[in-house]
Specification:
This protein is of the alpha/beta class and 141 residues long. It has a single domain, classed as P-loop containing nucleotide triphosphate hydrolases (Rossmann fold). Helix content is 26%, strand content 26%. The protein has 4 helices and 7 strands. Strands 1-7-6-2-5-4-3 form a 7-stranded mixed beta sheet. A hairpin with a 5-residue loop joins strand 6 and strand 7. The termini are close together. The mean pLDDT is 91.
């Protein structure tokens, strides 16, 4: 399904809607979009919808940020990784076993990490503030 956002707040609200639609158990959300597309804003809304606490910021330098709450969120940024092997070295499989939500920015850098069951979110810039957001793998509430 494709959605259009005209503001950062609307992008966050769509992330919150996705949180409400997620199935129980461990979930992987593979995110795609160029630098500055709004992936982290989307994850901020996702965190709010999951009841996860903490200020959501891009994990570009830490690779993963963890947010705990009603449902745990593990926010990955693969921008600086050269291969999926590096992701597995930091414990990707352990995160998958923790039954939380793994939101992965720059998923195109680690395609081998996904098994086809992930939810795909693609964010494209349509203007300075406008975004086209495509969500595949789940129907939003």
């Amino acid at each position: 399904m494709t959605y259009f956002s005209q503001t950062e707040a609307e992008t966050e609200a769509l992330g919150e809607r996705l949180a409400a639609a997620l199935p129980a158990g461990g979930v992987v959300i593979a995110m795609y979009g160029e630098l500055g597309a709004g992936k982290t804003a989307f994850v901020r809304g996702l965190a709010r919808g999951l009841g996860a606490r903490g200020r959501v910021v891009s994990p570009t330098f830490t690779i993963v940020n963890e947010y705990y709450g009603e449902r745990d969120l593990f926010h990955f940024d693969m921008y600086r990784l050269r291969s999926a092997d590096e992701l597995f070295d930091i414990g990707w499989e352990d995160y998958l076993g923790r039954e939380g939500v793994c939101a992965v920015e720059w998923s195109e850098n680690v395609p081998e990490a996904f098994d086809g069951s992930e939810i795909r979110v693609t964010i494209e810039k349509t203007s300075d503030t406008g975004r086209k957001i495509t969500v595949e793998g789940v129907e939003l509430c």
